[in-house]
UniProtKB/TrEMBL annotation:
The chain crosses the membrane at residues 49-69. Pfam families: Abhydrolase_5. It comes from Romboutsia ilealis. Coiled coil: none annotated. The keyword Signal does not apply. It comes from the Bacteria. Residues 109-270 form the Alpha/beta hydrolase fold-5 domain. GO terms for molecular function: hydrolase activity. Keywords: Membrane, Transmembrane, Transmembrane helix. This is Thioesterase. The keyword Metal-binding does not apply. The lineage of its organism: Bacteria, Bacillati, Bacillota, Clostridia, Peptostreptococcales.
Length: 287
């Protein structure tokens, strides 16, 4: 009897083993098929990611090309103002430097250009300031966008150890960046805001001299924000509204999109602006 049971068990074991062996190829094929599906899904996923990244890169490059292509170029007055004479020596090496002749400048002014505006467009304004005996530097911004090079003035300050007092300023968005730089730099004694205002009230308690200049016909600036910004500036800030001036004529680059027509000449607006900045520079260190 025991022999029969053992034989029966052995037969069952053999049958089970044979069944497993028969199923093994089927299981293996199914497993291989699942692996292929997973690999295919991973391939498609990676392919979609690469395609998406390529699309983003193309969009980014197109945006840069469009940005550069629509940048505001300097006018003839600006180009003429870049020629050295017996009053001012001008060097262009990325940044644009105006050095007065016949005088050892001890005070300097650094200008941050407005967004999408070529740095050369501010040459007429900066030349006028330099003719009064001050070192002046217009910063050349990467892609004409001051936000991308907010601390570029720091290098200028380090390179000119003979300048004892610095004023930084900017036009429009450049003014926002300039005010931020001034907050974090003890070498800066004054700030010039041209059709601009700070993004916060950090300047308020620092004791730096500030002048805020804008035009009554400015079609770009948000006047509500300009008025509110007075709460963010020092109490002794000098405010200069130029009657009939617009946003664009702080530089020489044509009429900016959205701006109003000015009621005064570009030369008149630049004269009033430069005189206001020179007055600030004269008062630096006299408190």
């Amino acid at each position: 009897m025991a022999e029969k049971v053992e034989k029966k068990y052995t037969n069952l074991e053999d049958t089970f083993s044979i069944t497993m062996e028969l199923q093994r190829p089927l299981l293996k094929d199914e497993d291989d098929e699942n692996k292929e599906k997973i690999k295919h899904r991973e391939y498609r996923f990676k392919k979609n990611i690469k395609f998406g990244l390529c699309v983003l890169v193309v969009i980014f490059l197109m945006g840069i090309i469009n940005w550069i292509g629509t940048a505001y170029k300097p006018g003839q007055l600006a180009l003429d103002s870049l020629v050295s004479d017996d009053k001012v020596e001008i060097t262009v090496d990325g940044n644009i430097t105006f050095t007065p002749k016949g005088i050892e400048a001890t005070k300097g002014f650094i200008l941050y250009p407005g967004a999408k505006v070529d740095a050369k467009a501010y040459a007429p304004l900066c030349r006028k300031i330099a003719e009064n005996g001050y070192k002046v530097v217009i910063l050349d911004m990467y892609l004409n966008f001051a936000m991308l090079s907010p601390n570029k003035a720091e290098k200028i300050i380090k390179e000119h150890e003979n300048i004892k007092s610095w004023v930084v300023g900017g036009h429009s968005l450049g003014g926002v960046v300039a005010s931020r730089f001034a907050v974090n730099n003890t070498n800066v004694d004054g700030v010039v805001l041209l059709a601009s205002y700070p993004s916060n009230d950090d300047l308020k308690q620092l004791g730096k001299d500030v002048v805020s200049i804008w035009g009554s016909k400015d079609g770009v600036i948000n006047f509500a924000n300009l008025i509110e910004s007075k709460e963010k500036l020092p109490k002794d800030t000098t405010y200069v509204e130029i009657e009939g001036a617009n946003h664009s004529q702080f530089g020489d680059y044509g009429k900016q999109k959205g701006d109003y027509d000015a009621l005064i000449s570009e030369e008149k607006q630049l004269e009033i602006t430069s005189n206001s900045i020179v007055k600030l520079l004269e008062n630096i260190g006299n408190k």
